[in-house]
Specification:
The protein is of the alpha+beta class. Helices cover 41% and strands 20% of the residues. The protein is extended and about 105 Å long.
Length: 490
Amino acid sequence: MELSPLEVQIRILPSTPGVYQYYDKDHKLLYVGKAKNLKKRVSSYFTKNHDSYRIKSMVKKIVTIEHIVVETEMDALLLENSLIKNRNPRYNIMLRDDKTYPWLCIKKERFPRVFLTRRMIKDGSEYYGPFSSVKTVRALLDLIKGLYPLRTCKYDLSADKINAGKYKVCLEYHIGNCAGPCDGLMSETAYAANIDNVRNIVKGDYKNAAKHFESQMMEYAANMQFEDAQRIKEKLEILQKYQSKSTVVNSKITDVDVFSLISDETHAYVNYLQLSHGAIVRSHTLEIKKKLEETDQELLEIAIIELRQRFNSQCREIYVPFEVKLGDQIKVTIPQLGDKKKIVDLSLRNAKFYRQEQFKTIKIVDPDRHVKRLMAQMKADLRLDEEPVHIECFDNSNIQGTNPVAACVVFKNGKPSKKDYRNFNIKTVEGPDDFASMEEVVHRRYRRLLEEGEPLPQLVVVDGGKGQLSSGLKALDRLAERKNHHYRNC
């Protein structure tokens, strides 16, 4: 039974975390959703009976499914949030602005406060996150509070007011949570050093703090202060489980276009991620059929120009995996480390998944074309003289050095040819000698094919390493056939 275009789209979806987008016949966005497993989640819309009229109505209108692959379920959650707010899909229940994800803020002020917030204000303050839950931020704040005495009051701690004795210490000072900068009991330099340590911990550089905790925990345990040791152990565990900010939402990467490319002998695939205000708002992958012997650089340059024009991008900076020439009007960055490199890697991941999905589509709707493309790719990758339409693979086994056996599996035109499978009992080898066993079965197999006038394979694969490969080649040397065939160990 022939599958519909929509059924094919569902069939080729990956089983990874990501965000899916439903479009109608006019390519208007209907819905954005997140998934731990894209294939299972999307399939559920079309296999279940839905009580909701809204869902039934939406499913009837779906014509096209697009998706963005991410690393984690948390990234999927954050990406869903940013896409909904940016694209306003018709069938989404909009997430309210005051219910957005939490950030940790280091306030721009004298003796900075460190606190949780859901609003980012452009006043020079530093924001770290977003975090997958408020619980994570509060645990981190508790950790910071236990490590460094920081103020929580909202007073204007100017030098004049402190020197005039306008403020007095509060309860936080008396219970050890604050060092009393409001009353001149802590210098601005010492407080700034604490804030620097907080920055390092929030950024994920917590090795020194972890060593300090471990030393403290061992000291308490040695003194049989087990409750205190347990308390320090819990803080250490929180520190070790701390998760740094997401790849898909990053306040330090503002408006930028990200491009990546993956290519084979006949096609190139270019993924485009558009970031606005630190969040991914669009993903699109372009397939380019090679006409001449274009380099990857030339293909990426062409794709960048086309995609930026198509989506009317005005970004002045782009991230790419290798050098491209686009003139002086656009800043080209080739990230090597850090958050920028992660976002380029995410783009490349989506390009690879798109290529795999195209292969799956061809396999479903045009199996013969799929086999031809597969054979051409294998010929190029393995540097063969002809396409490997006939492949044979060998493996040996034994039971603790006894009862040695071997097997040969055969593929013809990209499919298993089970009628040609063969099992072998090793006859000439005693004991666990895998190399000699491989030589025997290869020799027996191709001596038989030559005697019966059967066609020989274009590719022979042996399981193992150089020893097994050498043994197989030795057997072929004995049959004087090695000069007409290429062999590789896999």
